[in-house]
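Quick one, T. Sequence first:
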Amino acid sequence: MQRDIFDAEHDAFRDLARTFIAKEITPFHEQWERDGQVSRDVWLAAGKAGLLGTDVPEEYGGGGVSDFRYNAVLTEELTRAGASGVGFPLQNDVVAPYLLRLASDEQKRRWLPGFCSGEIITAIAMTEPGTGSDLQGIQTNAGRGDDGWILNGAKTFITNGIMADLVIVVARTDPDAGSRGFTLLVVERGMPGFERGRRLNKVGLKAQDTAELSFTDVHVPDANVLGEPGGGLIALMQNLAQERLSIAVGCAAGAARALELTVEYTKERTAFGRPVSTFQNTRFELAEIATEVDVTQAFVDRCITELVAGRLDAADAAKAKWWASDVLKRVVDRCVQLHGGYGYMLEYPIAKAFVDSRVQAIFGGTNEIMKEIIGRELLG
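Structure tokens:
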């Protein structure tokens, strides 16, 4: 079906992103998967091309256009290229809103130019070894010190964790204040006591540098508090809708790509003397997959429209995230089956899609948590 949420400027940006990916990412991605992280050079190249910070004001080096559709275009093109290791969506979709909404003028001048140029790679640290989607269970803590805070604790499963120059850390700063007892502290590369643990050996997303982080008596100056002390959890709730929609955008694009790969494969692959595509089971499977992909895309596009208009709420974002990630799992699994034994070989893109897709239902809040959010909205 014709998608009608993009205009000529978005189409031009898609061409830019597609050209950039073909030149700067695709030839190197396999090596980055072996390395366990991408090159910093690709971040600098992306900054030069204008792919980072499209919604950051021009005075800080950004694109100056507050329009999530540009973010969606970049995520879709990265997904369709199988570039699962490049952390641009984390920078643009997840971290940018915190800096734009909460940073002081001085902080914006200090951080945003490098954010847009690719010289500053960012991450956000919520998840802990003993705490997943339950953010109120966070144990990383910070107490007052001289002209700042003393941060202690550990985080895990942190995207961009190895390469990050700036990490927004969610810390408990007042154990007696309930939901008002959390603060966002910005930890920068080189701060004494800030250490990166091992690069985590994941099932998929091999080129994405997911890491453990530890903080031992890290002095975080007051100048690095993001927003108001005690306002951390509220800020998370305000920004998680866009993060979850970003995941949904990638999942919808991933499902469409899996379908495209499988249609092409079944036309070329023969069994019993004829193309696999000529069997009724193949046609029925592909028909069901295509319908799920189109229905999912329609809802995700509506959510994009709602976000751009400032109307997307937490429940609808949760619907998009759980539905799209669940559809992605089902679609990729069925597409692997239609590839037969070759679908299990990592030299085939569908196999990589299989191992990369499973985590989408887990990060950004598990799908069980998404259903809880939706249920609470329905039942009060």
